[in-house]
Design goal:
Number of helices: 8
Strand order of the largest sheet: 2-3-4-1-5-12-6
Radius of gyration: 25 Å
Pathway: Amino-acid biosynthesis; L-histidine biosynthesis; L-histidine from 5-phospho-alpha-D-ribose 1-diphosphate: step 1/9
Number of strands: 16
Organism: Xiashengella succiniciproducens
Oligomer: single chain
CATH superfamily of the largest domain: Periplasmic binding protein-like II
Order of helices and strands: EHEEEHEHEEEHEEHEEHEHEEHE
Bound molecules: adenosine-5'-triphosphate, 1-O-pyrophosphono-5-O-phosphono-alpha-D-ribofuranose, magnesium ion
Subcellular location: Cytoplasm
Strand content: 25-35%
GO molecular function: ATP binding; ATP phosphoribosyltransferase activity; magnesium ion binding
EC number: 2.4.2.17
CATH architecture of the largest domain: 3-Layer(aba) Sandwich
Structural class: alpha+beta
Length: 290
C-alpha cells in the first residue's frame, strides 16, 4: 500500500514526439493520470505520489542524473549518447529502433573500412565515435541536430548514422543500411541515489507497469473439448499455474480456461484443433498480477 507520505517521485517524460504517447498510455493504464493542460511542463498525478516533468528527450538523462527528476522514460540510444550513469530499471517494449550506418544506394559497400576518410553526419556523435575507435576507422563525424537523412543528398556528408525503424526514411532518401551499431527501445532510467521512500514509490510503479505489460502480451483462452481429450489439451496449454477445467452442461464435455502468450497461441492453435478443441475464444486481459 502507498504510505501516507509527503514524498513525491518526479518522472521526466518526453514532452512531444515518438515516445510521448506510449509513455502517457503506459502511465494511464497503470492508473497514474496527470492533470495536464495544453503546454504545461509540470503536472501532478491524481491518486499516486508522482509528478511529471515534460522535457525534450535530449534533456532527460541529465535531468535524472542531476536529481531534478528521480526517474525518466527515454530511448536507450539517447541514454547511451549522453553518457550519464543512471540505472536502467525497466525495458518498456516500445520506441523500438536501431542506430545504423547508411550510405548512398549507388555506392559499392566494401565493409566497415569503406568509412575510412569519409564524412558521416549524425545526431549521435558520441556513440559513433566510440564505434569508429573500436573498429579503428578514421572518419570525420559531422554533428547535426535533425534531418540527418538528407545530408548525403545535399553534399553535406558521404554517409549517415541515424535511427532506423521500418527503413522507409532511408529508402525515401536513396540510402541503404550497411551496419547496425545498437538496438534501442524506451527504458525507465533512475537516479542511482534514490532515497528509500522514492525507491518504494518506484517499485510500486514498476509493479503496475509489469501488470499492464504482461496483460498486453497475454490472452485468456476459453475452449470446449470432449472429456477424453482434456488431458492432451492441458498438456498443450500450460497456463499460469495449470488450466481450469469445468464441466459443460452437455454430458461428456468440458470447458478449459487458460492464459497464454499471443505468440504461443499461434503456435498451438493447430494442435488444439487436432485434439478436438471447439468454440475457441481468445479474450484480452485488462491487468495481469504476476
Ligand atoms: N521511427 C522510430 N521508430 C521507433 N522509435 C523511434 C523512431 N524514431 C525515434 N524513435 C525513438 O524515440 C525517441 C524519440 O524520438 P523523436 O523523433 O521524438 O526525438 P526528438 O525529435 O529528438 O524529440 P525531442 O523533441 O524530444 O528532442 C528516439 O530517441 C528513439 O529512441
Ligand atoms: O526507418 P523509419 O521507420 O523511416 O524511421 C526512422 C525515422 O524516424 C525518426 O524520425 P521521425 O519520423 O520521428 O521524425 P523526425 O525526423 O522529426 O524526428 C528518425 O529520426 C528517422 O528519421
Ligand atoms: Mg531530441
Amino acid at each position: 500500500m502507498i504510505k501516507d507520505t509527503e514524498t513525491i517521485l518526479r518522472i521526466a517524460l518526453q514532452k512531444s514526439g515518438r515516445l510521448h504517447d506510449d509513455s502517457m498510455d503506459l502511465m494511464n493504464r497503470s492508473g497514474i493520470k496527470f492533470n495536464t493542460g495544453a503546454g504545461r511542463l509540470v503536472a501532478q498525478s491524481t491518486g499516486f505520489p508522482v509528478e511529471a516533468l515534460f522535457l525534450r528527450d535530449d534533456d532527460i538523462p541529465q535531468t535524472v542524473y542531476d536529481g531534478v527528476a528521480d526517474i525518466g522514460i527515454v530511448g536507450e540510444n539517447e541514454y547511451a549518447e549522453k553518457g550519464y550513469e543512471l540505472e536502467i530499471v525497466k525495458h518498456l517494449n516500445f520506441g523500438k529502433c536501431r542506430l545504423s550506418l547508411a550510405i548512398p544506394k549507388s555506392e559499392h559497400y566494401t565493409g566497415v573500412g569503406w568509412f575510412d576518410g569519409k564524412k558521416v553526419a549524425t545526431s549521435y556523435p558520441r556513440i559513433l565515435k566510440k564505434f569508429f575507435e573500436e573498429k579503428k576507422i578514421q572518419a570525420e563525424i559531422h554533428e547535426i541536430a535533425g534531418s540527418v537523412e538528407i545530408a548525403p543528398g545535399i553534399g553535406l556528408a558521404d554517409a549517415i548514422f541515424d535511427i532506423v525503424s521500418s527503413g522507409s526514411t532511408l529508402v525515401a532518401n536513396s540510402l541503404k543500411e550497411v551496419g547496425v551499431v545498437m538496438y534501442s527501445q524506451a527504458v525507465v532510467v533512475a537516479n542511482k541515489n534514490l532515497e528509500p521512500e522514492k525507491r518504494e514509490i518506484l517499485d510500486q510503479m514498476l509493479f503496475r507497469f509489469n501488470s499492464v505489460m504482461a496483460s498486453a502480451t497475454n490472452k485468456y483462452v476459453l475452449l470446449n473439448a470432449p472429456n477424453e481429450r482434456v488431458k492432451d489439451i492441458v498438456k498443450i496449454l500450460p497456463g499460469m499455474k495449470s488450466p481450469t477445467v469445468l464441466p459443460l452442461a452437455q454430458e461428456g464435455w468440458s470447458s478449459i480456461h487458460s492464459v497464454i502468450s499471443e505468440e504461443q497461441f499461434w503456435e498451438v492453435i493447430d494442435q488444439l484443433k487436432a485434439c478436438g478443441a471447439e468454440g475457441i475464444l481468445i479474450i484480452p486481459i485488462e491487468k495481469m498480477i504476476l
